[in-house]
């Protein structure tokens, strides 16, 4: 669209701005970096308004629904679309965090808070390390800008205010949930296999030599081998994550297309 910003901010475009801002709110509620809880809410709101103004000229004009009761439903669907676009990348970060938490449990590090002298403070675990790695790779490949570009493209592919069925995207939600667990399994698999073999070896040793306390022997072995395997698998996990993050534009386009098919039909 070739209109200027001054023309885009006329009162006639206010309904369009409301729909674009709602989609942005859903996007910033799930997308990595954009959804950081450490950023003050006022700053996040200001960023959303600025981005909404920047994206407004490229959004088709929206006419208010005939019935006012349809307006909250339409805005809710816009929020869901933005949320799904943000989740297309967030599921990978969540999967990395889940893999780290599973490894912490298998290594015995989950007992850290129980024996910590300062119980009110959370003890950092492997999950935070994996999550930080995913976010760093996400930023290094420009994932936050890719997602924002995908959101801008969605305004043309799926215009604000277009009819979206309330139950649309059910297959997409299932796929995103599967991505979380699939990422966790792929990242944690090498360390989990090593820990399984370690537990089997400790169990066999305990049966062969009853004088050895298997539990006392298992803790240092599982923690040491677990940390060693996590460190050894980080380069491979980083390469895999880089390939996944490079597919963010395609993932965002698939998210928009799923809603478009659900609303427009085959």
What does this structure look like?
With 266 residues, the chain is mostly helical. The chain has one domain (5-264). The protein is built from 10 helices and no strands. The chain has helices at 5-8, 14-28, 41-55, 70-107, 112-115, 126-140, 143-157, 170-208, 214-246, 248-264. Helix 4 packs across helix 6. The radius of gyration is 24 Å and the shape is elongated. Mean pLDDT is 78; it is low at 116-121 and 262-266.
List keywords for this structure.
disordered C terminus, 10 helices, mainly alpha, 266 residues
Mean pLDDT: 78
Distance between the termini: 28 Å
The amount of beta strand, in percent, is under 5%
Task: Count all strands and give the number.
Answer: 0
Quick overview:
With 266 residues, the chain is mostly helical.
Layout of helices and strands:
Elements: H1 5-8, H2 14-28, H3 41-55, H4 70-107, H5 112-115, H6 126-140, H7 143-157, H8 170-208, H9 214-246, H10 248-264
